Each structure stands twice: as structure tokens, then as C-alpha cells.
Amino acid sequence: MNAPKHTLTAKSQDFLDNLSLYLFSSGKKDEEVKEIVEELEDHLIEAEKRGKSVSHIIGHSPKAYMEQLSEEMSFDFKWLSYLPIIVLGVFAYVLLGDSIRGGVKYTLLQVIGYPAVSVILVLFYLRMFKFLASTKLSKTKTIITTLTLGILPILFFLGLMFANDAYKTPVVIKLGATGNIIAALLAIAIFIGISLWSKTWFTIVIPTMLFLPEFIISLTSFEKETKAILTISVLFVTLIIYNVYTFKKAKKENRI
Amino acid sequence: MSNTQMLKGILDGCLLAIINEGEVYGYELAEKLESYGFQQTSEGTIYPLLIRMQKEELVTTTLKKSTAGPRRKYYSLTSKGEEELQAFIERWNHLSRSVDQILQKRGSGK
Q1: Is residue A197 domain-resident?
Q2: Per residue, what are the HEC states of chain B?
Q3: Is A4 on the interface with B (CB under 8 A)?
């Protein structure tokens, strides 16, 4: 879109962003969400040209207005299919990591735990997105909430790890050398599959960044400690590069 | 009873009537509504109503390019929408006549 465009005030743009997030996390149909956001964008542009404020358009409670719109829009059942795919993604991630690090071996607790934790996290995130999009929090509260949301999956998976050590449940899956190679290939196939399905590079780029350096370093003949340090530093650098890249890209495409 | 509650349903009919005058897009529609004296309602109120009217097939939409900004969605009435407008006009006439009578009787009674 490179047509000369009237730029919206930050407040209006914020409202539109929050509205899409709210409707999206309420499971509304993609096209319907796009349509109404586009329509309101047009309305806000026209209104701002004439000096009207957002509250003149949406009233005094953005939340109430979002709810009104949401009530009239239909729920997209295609949405439910995202859940198993996210669980599958987590599964592939865990599988690939373990097969590189010397062997797939899962206890009963892990086989049940990983999918359960993934589902709980996804449902929780959806609720939180909806809440954050419609509620105005102070800056400190926003930072705390975002941090908690970021740390939560780590806590959950660490918890699962500790629980697995504390409670001995029988090993249900254990793979040998060939099995591990097959498992790794399977995980890679899942990543590629999800990438094709979602039409994003995300599920190929992230695992490559996380696992490829580790895999290559594991083939070298360095000392164990050197390997560990190398792996972590390479990971750190790639993450920084990736963040800078995505930030620059967002900046270019967007209004910042 | 608050103004907004009283307006519900009546707004629907008014939107149908304005759309019946000719194809309009959202902002235009809100402006026309305002010019007829509906100033208390915030402009965005029309969109949830429009979404519902679209679902009930009272209106159809076409997307057209606008000079600046996003594509613009234009509304026009379907034949079902025209029927609904006629029904609304009848209901409204009946209702306003009754309300008028009650208010006038009370006014002249004292």
C-alpha cells in the first residue's frame, strides 16, 4: 500500500490494533475482522480530517464498543483446529531438541504433560489477549503482565521437568540411534508442514536458529565446555540479529 | 429509560431509510444521521447494526476504491431490506400516533 495515506493519530491506531486483537482472540472470522477494522479505519480517517476524536466515534468505553461489535460477528470454528497444530508444533520442538541432544526418552508424565501444558497455555493466552486488548492498564502493570506472560511457558515447562524428576513414571517411549534420526526428520517435516499450512516462515526460521548451530557444534571435536559456551553465544547472537531484523522490517512496513 | 435504549430498533429503521435514498458508505451514513438530529449517539454505533443487517440480508455491500486510505464499503438495500423498511414505517406511524395521543391528552387534561 503506497498510496498517499492520511495517517491516523496514535490513539485511533491503538484502538484499531486493540480491536483486531480483541476480535481475533475472540475467535471471530478473519475476513469479518479485516472488514470491520478497515471500515472503521476509513471512518476514523474521515472523522479526524474534520477534527473529531476517537471517543466521538466509539463512545467512552472502548471495551463496551468492542463487545457490541463482537456480539454481531460469527465465531470461526476453524479456530479450534489451531489447537492441535500448536500442540504438534511444541511436540516437534521438544522432539528435535531431544534427538539432537542424544536420545528420545519419554516418561508417561511427559507424554501427557507436554500436550496438556500446551493446551492450557494457549487457552490462557487467548483470554489474556482479549483482556489486554480491551482494558487500559498503567505502564507498570502492562510491563509486569507482559513479563509474566513471557515467563509463564518457561515456568510451566520447567515445572514439568522437575515433576518428571520427582515422580518416577514408567518410560513409555525410548528410541535407539535409527529411531532418533527418524524422530529428528519427523520433527523437521512437522515444522515444514506447519510453515506451509500457516504460510509463514516462522516455524522454519525459529527452529533453524535454535537447533542448527547446536547441531553443527555438536559435530565438532571441541571440549564439552567449549561446546556449551559456543552454543549459548551463537544462540544469543542469532537471537539479537533476528530481533533487530524483525524490528527493522516492522518499522519499514509500518507507521513508526 | 436511557436515550440509547429508546433508540435501539428505531435506529435500525432510520438506517434502512437513509440507505434507501442511495448507496452510502459508513462515514457518510453517520453524518447524515447526525444531520437529521441524532447527535447523542456516538458515530460508531451504526457498525454493529450494519453488521447485523448484513447478516439478515437487509443490505448488501460493495467495495470500492477511495482516493486515499482503505477501500470503502458501500451499502444498498436488498428487496428484503425494502420490505423491512415498509414494515418499520408502518410500525413507527402507529407507535408515534399512539404516543402523540397519550401525550396530548395529558397535556390538555390539566
Answers
A1: no
A2: CCHHHHHCCHHHHHHHHHHHCCCEEHHHHHHHHHHCCCCCCCHHHHHHHHHHHHHCCCEEEEEECCCCCCCEEEEEECHHHHHHHHHHHHHHHHHHHHHHHHHHHHHHHC
A3: yes
